[in-house]
């Protein structure tokens, strides 16, 4: 029975009309606390000075309570639907099959929407969906909510309606036709059959019109070679799962080479099955993801790579073209030839002759991995046509220039020259999502929708046909380029009607829209002959002309189209582990010769020298220098995609524009490098470069040992002393164990052989869990909020096994100290290993025992849980975590004036996942093993009255992993994939000797 007894706090409360009582009821604190005088002003706070005694006197109960109140999240009232749309059920996610296509990246994907808002990209795993989402595709959903998008069309820089812009463009095209002036349509590779047809119709209707395809990062030389042999301007596709021996000459096929997407097939052959795995040789200048994954990596200048390619050509085809000999190349060539149809060679050299030899070698091998039937349609740029267009513009021969999906003023090496030539064009119209450099220089800028607001189609490889469908109504007054083409072609159809009426595939239209893609396997073509020996002779004469600059695209930034995306800017580069920057990478020996340095400073940050690069007549001044283990001597690397200014938030205007050095669309340039005064501050999230022989963190072995010796010898389990006897560490416990055999118990398995370090999982985790962006300054202070990190380790010797021997050979305290100090430095050509690390969800978690308020506790399903409302930010848990995976939320990253990223404007916040709260300052946060996803799966099965199938349980990271490195599931289901992986002889736990019993399982890395 409840009590109605009333208690009085003071005599004053007996007076019902007391103004004092009313004031106290409405005021938590008796008097206003003047904390804003110094807490609200950054300058005053920085200059304030007080003794500890005064501070403690000031911070009494009232001030402490005020501070705690300030840590609470703001309350926002929601507005309910007046008329609820039929297709939307509040709280239930909808998924749409669609495709991503921006001219550089292509993927078949699913888009998750909540209450009509796209919030996350996932992989479409239906049969026939070959291209999965990389880090940039996962981040593309945030670009939809970019507050700097072009919101309406513009004429001469002033807002205009589409009707006005369209009339102006039509009039210019008509005038050009009447006067015989040239009309040029300049686009990126759309890979869209319907768009290509519409452009062809437009060109046919205007005899003076021409279509030019321009890709910012060119594959034109490879296209020219393939066309010469196979009669089709396309690229061969490769299935690395069918190869036992892989040789790569300068091709980062696990990165962006020829469109990427090869990692899934590659990983299948890299996981030892039945005692076998593929063998991978990599010859390259820059350290790349492919080089990091290779069994044998040889650093080489590009001129030496050309000689190596000729040497391999001679061995495989029996030719005798004169070329320099190299022992490592000879070994690779012999194994490649011996592999026959189970061998494959790929090459990233921007040279037609080199690409011709690639075709000749793979044909001679009869390579099963080499596919010339389902060719790639995602690179169509033609360098010769682009050069002719610029010449015509400079001569005043182009009357009307219509551009879509390109930004040549930024991405051409002679971008300024292109901008000047635009002034000689009577009318230039740019269809763009952003008022970028080219849109600003054009007569007319037409605002186009994001791909998530658009209809479209795409044929990524021949034989595939995928649909792009809108997942949200257009946010702004935008027009699709294809609708404009239909208008110019005199059609009244909408683009949707045009696609639907022209579709003639095997599926019904509704089935196609539901599945997103259909696919037909096509047989490889025989191809024609070519003068391969002449091509080899030209390559054999290649000589170095001094220091070589090798331009490349970063895993996070790509060609720079999404440079205003804060998720990608803060994404740590898998190799250097630096974010918010591009920099020139140099080898240690070249750095010493030039006096270039990197050093760590007191706050844990990394600093580096500055250098000036000169290529021809173009100079890039004060470029930061990163000393990169594995960089070939005599070469330097620099990433494209940075240095943008237009339509960019100030925080994202970082780096230098390397496109200015991209002469003749070649990624290799002769360069001079000189040191400058001053230094640069990097935001690098990992300063410990090597393992220093700590073989219990990343366990490695060779395929020979794996096949011939017992697991106890190569997957050594730690032991501890108990009663003066050595016993297995896992058998000794400080904690009491509980029965976890009832219900679900989740494990995450991570295979170090399959992980390529691509980082798609990192961005997927951001999207799913509302992980905040903190900016360069905070990352530099080690305050990044990534729930998932991918540690990258180099070997100190040439191999990790060499590190172990060096460490074991040390004798005595002083010798051990000097040995370990020496092992902090990476080898000039190290082996590399990647290790994804998140909260290990320990069954015996040290964080849980030290939390004074029980904010972190263990769930029955194995997840270490966080109750944010309980957390008071003591950070005891972070100090007690051996894996260092907990992140303290230092500031309010949303709704403030300091962090100008997506969480600080209404548009950007539309990407937030309502299933996960946006954390406030003063709390600890970390990986939750996506508990909202596991609970959703359980509830769905309960509603349907069925048993959960293996594979239904997913986390954001396991769902995003295309290589199969991450597998998530219920280990209490003994038939599940993850349960079998947990019992595999390669399975081990991170830092197993400390007895935390993690629910994350790693698998020993095996090298062939």
TrEMBL record:
It comes from the Bacteria. InterPro entries: 4Fe4S_Fe-S-bd, TAT_var_transloc_signal_dom. Gene3D superfamilies: 3.30.70.20, 3.40.50.740, Formate dehydrogenase/DMSO reductase. Residues 746-776, 830-861, 862-891 form the 4Fe-4S ferredoxin-type domain. Pfam families: Fer4_7. PANTHER family: GLUTAMATE SYNTHASE [NADPH] SMALL CHAIN, GLUTAMATE SYNTHASE [NADPH] SMALL CHAIN-RELATED. This is 4Fe-4S dicluster domain-containing protein.
